[in-house]
Predict the structure.
Amino acid sequence: MILRYFTNGLLRLLFMTLIVTLIGIITLTYNWPKGADVESVPQSTVGAAEDPEPTAASSEPLASIRLDDVLLAEPRPTPGQSIFFHETSCYDVKNKNLNILKLTARQACAIESAALHNPNFQVFVLFVDRKYSHVVDPNVGNRSIQQPLFDAILSYSNVHLRRLNLWRYAAGTPMEEWLREGNLFRSRYLVSHISDFLRYLTLFRYGGLYLDMDVVVLRSMEDIPPNYTGAESDTFLAAGIMNLAASGFGHQIAASCLHDFQTNFDGNVWGQNGPEVITRVAQQICGTKNISVMQTNRKRCLGFKVFGRGAFYAVTSDKWLNFFNPHKLEETLARTKDSYAVHVWNSQSEKKPIKIGSTCAYAKYAEKNCPRAYHAAGEYF
């Protein structure tokens, strides 16, 4: 009798355990995202790619900051009073982590220097495309190895990180139909030419100041009258630092640049769609191909200012190593003492390391003009 009661009780217990387990499995299966597994669900995200509702940036840790669309999120760029950077590496076929939000220390330096010296301008860093889903690097756990760099630039209240979708950004502009034709995406230099495309499109949309990610701003540019660029040689203007007014003549120049970009686009020539665009447009405005005449006679250029090389490109591309050579420190600092900014020619210099504390010119610029990014870089800048 006792054995039979014990056996029946054990069977009842096992039966009830089985029922509870089955209910738990069914509930979990019903509520789990379709097609998801534990490995694929991110632990922290920047915001869904197509999330239509932007939210204001919060004071939460970086890993939970949303990257909202520049066309939707507040604050929006103030026409003619904003500074823009573009990050286009998501189109680099060598980029293995397309959805990881990242910056180099030198890019962070460019952003910080712009924010530091121009506190009355809003600085927008536009990360191209909608694929960003992580701030953290999944290979190093919940805290990004780059978090100190983001902390450095976001410590400035006038710095805003945004995402940018090419098709939405071009919609309603003269580039909308041209972009759909697909010529841009057949370029041999896709990352560079998307950057070229966007700098002129951004200036058409908002006006303001465009800066390349390989500049260091040395002093305020807030009081420079709008509508200017700089010469990089005796034959070409450069497109790495440009300012256009949001309306009037500046907007007309931006429209002319977009028209030239479409008309003369060549995906097989690196500079055809960047510096050569602003050079050709300036030649039309000024009625001359002589860069020296453009610089000395602003009336001839109808108010469009062409700065000499000393303003932004005092160290020419063939002398880029001078930025990294401690023995060239005094010469380089003297050459750039009146410059508004320096351009460090990233296409040549990106793989040249600088040890923190170096006495080369680039390190000295960084220590003074982007101190937070410089000290957050680690052992090498």
Q: What stands out?
A: The chain is about 40% helix and 10% strand. The chain has a mean pLDDT of 83.
